[in-house]
Design a protein that fits this description.
The chain is 38% helix and 21% strand. By secondary structure, the chain is α+β, with helices and mostly antiparallel strands. It folds into 3 domains: 149 residues, Multidrug-efflux Transporter 1 Regulator Bmrr, Chain A (Alpha-Beta Barrel); 64 residues, no CATH class; 131 residues, no CATH class. A hairpin with an 8-residue loop joins β9 and β10.
């Protein structure tokens, strides 16, 4: 448990921001803030903050330094202006220095770790981000006295976004009346809802979806749209290689050989469908998996979804339809790389008692 960590849920408004996005390390943000503050000048409308978009293969971070602004400022030299979407966030405060080589517990990284632990204990899911550090009190107020710095950490919550995506998918593929039937009761769900109650709603919603939409492919398309958004930086990188190579199988070989590729491997299976590429999803919690002593614990550690992980532990049945959401992660990736529609089937699922999650991806004929 993390009894000393206080976390709250709040809604952050859409914000007009000026920012500079770069690939680098958190220690680099000061350099970019100095460039940005010169452009923002009197249009600064609040505390500066950092967006962490993704980790780039090779170890760098996809980072954006931002100021909220009262009106658009001149762009150029890496500076852009846009409206940053808000949303429901889980927030906590870090008080003290960002980095302390002599006491890691005082570093902001320790607060991040404790917040992630807090979320894991309560089965709270985060969306794809970006994650935020908002510098409420820093050197502007306190100079070099870093012990007085106050930083708010904000993590966008997955549950409200997932419900919005499910609603949109139902509207698009099943219609308004079906959507109302499936989503009944969802308005009462939040991260404060007890885990068993959240799970019970999902079980019921999937059962209603199975009964209302008879076509399996339509149900899959509905659930595919609920998935996390695959990092665009990775899609762009792989798409560039595909355009250079021109062959899916040669691209698969490049991904196997590329030291920067950090995702699961896509492979042909001589014992599977020759028209498909297969992928086994990476283990969600490696530390828990290696410490697990039972099959149930291993399957729960493999599962990426905090919404249904408790069903594995309690041997509660959840419709296979639900894992169309996990398949959607690979749909987004391959459609982004190829620029064409793909179909992804669930071949194995830890939620259904299998030892791993495995997907069959049917790519367009070359």
């Amino acid at each position: 448990m993390n009894p000393t960590l206080e976390a709250t849920r709040k809604t952050v408004d859409d914000t007009l921001v000026a920012g500079i996005r770069f690939a680098g390390q958190p220690q680099d943000v000061g350099t970019y803030f100095r460039k940005l503050v010169e452009r923002v000048g009197p249009h600064n409308a609040g505390p500066r903050f950092v967006l962490y978009h993704a980790i780039i293969p090779g170890g760098d971070h996809d980072i954006e330094v931002c100021f909220p602004v009262s009106e658009p400022v001149g762009e150029g030299e890496g500076v852009t202006c846009r409206t940053l979407p808000g949303g429901e966030m889980l927030c906590t405060f870090h008080r003290g220095p960002y980095y302390n080589p002599d006491d890691k517990e005082k570093c902001i990284g320790s607060t991040w770790e404790r917040l992630f632990g807090y979320m894991a204990e309560r089965e709270i899911g985060a969306t794809e981000g970006p994650y935020r550090e908002v510098y409420l009190e820093d050197d502007v107020q306190h100079g070099d006295d870093a012990e007085k710095y106050v930083t708010e950490i904000q993590i966008p919550l997955m549950l409200p976004v997932w419900l919005e995506r499910l609603t949109a998918g139902l509207d698009s593929h099943a219609g308004e009346s079906v959507r109302r039937e499936i989503m009944a009761g969802s308005e009462d769900l939040s991260i404060d809802t007890p885990v068993p109650d959240r799970l019970a709603w999902i079980v019921g919603a999937m059962n209603r979806l199975d009964a209302a939409v008879g076509d399996e492919r339509t149900r899959a398309r509905i659930m595919n749209g609920c998935a996390h958004v695959f990092p665009q930086t990775t899609i762009d990188r792989v798409r560039k290689e595909y355009e250079r190579i021109g062959s899916v199988d040669d691209l698969l070989q490049w991904m196997r050989d590329d030291p920067g590729w950090q995702g699961a491997l896509f492979e042909r299976d001589p014992d599977g469908d020759p028209d498909a590429v297969y992928v086994e999803k990476i283990i969600a919690n490696r530390k828990a998996y290696e410490a697990a002593t039972t099959d149930v614990e291993k399957r729960a550690a493999r599962c990426h979804c905090p919404f249904v992980r408790d069903a594995i532990r309690k041997a509660e049945k959840v419709s296979p339809t639900f894992c169309g959401c996990g398949a959607g992660w690979f749909v987004r990736f391959w459609e982004g790389v190829l620029g064409e529609s793909v179909r992804v089937d669930v071949a194995k699922s830890v939620l259904q008692g299998d030892d791993c999650c495995r997907f069959a991806i049917y790519l367009p004929t070359e």
